[in-house]
Every structure is written in C-alpha cells, then in structure tokens.
Automatic annotation (TrEMBL):
<protein>
    <submittedName>
        <fullName>RNA-binding protein</fullName>
    </submittedName>
</protein>
<dbReference type="Pfam" id="PF05258">
    <property type="entry name" value="DciA"/>
</dbReference>
<dbReference type="InterPro" id="IPR007922">
    <property type="entry name" value="DciA-like"/>
</dbReference>
Amino acid sequence: MAKRENDSFLVKDLMQIFIKENNLTKGMQKIQIEETWAKLMGQGVAGYTTSVKLQNKTLIVQLSSSVLREELTYGKEKIIKMMNEEMGENIISKIILA
C-alpha cells in the first residue's frame, strides 16, 4: 500500500501557483484592479464610475460626472500610489480619466 503524504497547502498558495503556471496573471490583475478601485475610492466615486480598464500600465477610468473627473485629476499621483500599494506591485504608471 502506498504511503500517504501529509503535505498541506493553503488554497491561496495553490491558486497563485495555478495562475502563474497557466499564464492568467494579467487577467486576474484586470479583475482585481476593478475591485481595488471601488474599495479605495469608496461608494461615492464608484457610483459615478462606468468602467475601469488596465492597458499597458495605464489605468483608464470612465466617469459619468465631469465635475468628479476634474476633481480626481488633481490627485492622479496619489491615486496611482494607493492603487499600486493595494495591488502589491507597480502595475500602474499612468491614469487616464475619461
């Protein structure tokens, strides 16, 4: 009879290995970026956000309020820093508010 191995792994670690082995990192980042935007910016800003996309280290955010777009323009650098810290790596270098 074969001996059973008692190695235990966390599901989080197994998922990270699976994502890396199957080249799913960019897809997961795109999903995570939307969740991070809503979390960091709060319900008020998330309510006026129509889409959040990540393309080539550029975060493209479409907003339905021109007033909010103008106000967020002043804090682009802070938003980039907060988003990168929350994501755990520097994946955003520029923000376009549309």
